[in-house]
Fold this protein.
Amino acid sequence: MLFMPILIVHLLAVTAKLVLFPFVPRLRDVKSVRAFYTWYRPLDRISNWVLWITGFLLVAVTSWRLLLQMWLLLSILLYIVVFLAIRMVLVRRLKLIADSQKVLAHDELKLFRVETACVVVVVLGLLGAIGYMMVNKP
């Protein structure tokens, strides 16, 4: 009964974390990075809390015995790796560029775009692996 509303809130928080990806190509200078970081940072913090809370609630609502299944533990681990990659690589680089004293920061923005492309590939691969495990339960 409570599972679906919690899952919907959880998936909305996931979407809030992934909203970073389509905005990266539009960032052209430090001013636009600062404006985006100012907008994104509170959203990122709220979604972090919502993800942890709803994740624990999903486990509590279903059953603790689910955690004994290896495919679910591996899926949760990969899920955490996805969001740590976003946070440790992209949000950290975004903060460094936003705090920069440069006006344009072309090299930093180019590196940020390359890192974003790499993280997108890794995230898509890991989310695909999680989806495979959820469907097939190996």
Notes: Residues 30-62 form the longest helix (33 residues). Residues 3-136 form one domain. The two ends are 27 Å apart (CA to CA). The chain has five helices and no strands.
